[in-house]
């Protein structure tokens, strides 16, 4: 079924098995609301299908970029603001960050895909948005985020953030809905490499936000 995965996986290494601590949100068939579940409660594998922007690191201690922000004054989300800032400072480069941020106060707009694929093709952003289920969810929200300041020619989705919470809400983050009271705290690392896996041969610009 379709769902919004919030990936958090410790890969297999010598002497210990892989640990999949991911969450996923789907549409609850009982009431049409958000149903957030822990991946490991139902599955034990680390397979991955469909679409995702994943950040991988060695998990070693070291310096990271800390981002603190509160009170949104513009129209862009935290992630878009970070991307635009990077592109403004380094217009000739493609810079990628991955990390985690917490929406500590306020609320956010998210979507969750319906469990079933659309029965008809979705050809425009409006058609995609009419098919998706949108919700407003409350802080604290823990967000897994990947962003690229500029597509280096890999036909990337240049930002993608999914969130989970400890109160049962989660999904695909767009932006906070409470600009006056929102507070963010995040930790990011620059990427050394960007890999594009299973790049589609046919592409379009639909549904990239
Ligand atoms: Zn998403």
UniProtKB/TrEMBL annotation:
This is DUF1907 domain-containing protein. It is found in: Nucleus. It comes from the Eukaryota. Its main location: nucleus. Keywords: Hydrolase, Metal-binding, Nucleus, Zinc. Pfam families: DUF1907. InterPro entries: C11orf54_DUF1907 (IPR015021). SUPFAM superfamilies: AF0104/ALDC/Ptd012-like (SSF117856). Monomer. Residues 1-197 form the DUF1907 domain. One of its GO terms (cellular component) is nucleus. GO terms for molecular function: hydrolase activity, acting on ester bonds; zinc ion binding.
């Amino acid at each position: 079924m379709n769902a919004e995965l919030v990936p958090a996986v410790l890969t297999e290494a010598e002497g210990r098995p892989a640990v999949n601590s991911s969450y996923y949100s789907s549409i609850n068939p009982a009431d049409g609301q958000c149903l957030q579940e822990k991946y490991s409660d139902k599955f034990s594998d680390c397979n991955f299908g469909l679409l995702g922007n994943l950040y991988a690191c060695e998990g070693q201690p070291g310096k990271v970029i800390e981002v603190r922000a509160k009170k949104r004054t513009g129209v862009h989300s935290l992630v878009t603001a970070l991307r635009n800032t990077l592109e403004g400072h380094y217009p000739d480069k493609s810079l990628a960050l991955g990390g985690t941020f917490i929406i500590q106060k306020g609320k956010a707009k998210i979507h969750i895909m319906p469990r079933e694929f659309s029965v008809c093709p979705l050809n425009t952003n409006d058609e995609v948005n009419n098919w998706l289920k949108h919700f407003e969810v409350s802080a604290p929200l823990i967000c897994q985020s990947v962003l690229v300041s500029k597509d280096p020619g890999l036909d990337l989705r240049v930002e993608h953030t999914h969130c989970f919470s400890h109160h049962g809400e989660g999904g695909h983050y767009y932006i906070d809905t409470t600009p006056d009271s929102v507070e963010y705290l995040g930790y990011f690392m620059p990427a050394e490499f960007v890999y594009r896996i299973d790049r589609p041969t046919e592409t379009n610009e639909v549904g990239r936000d």
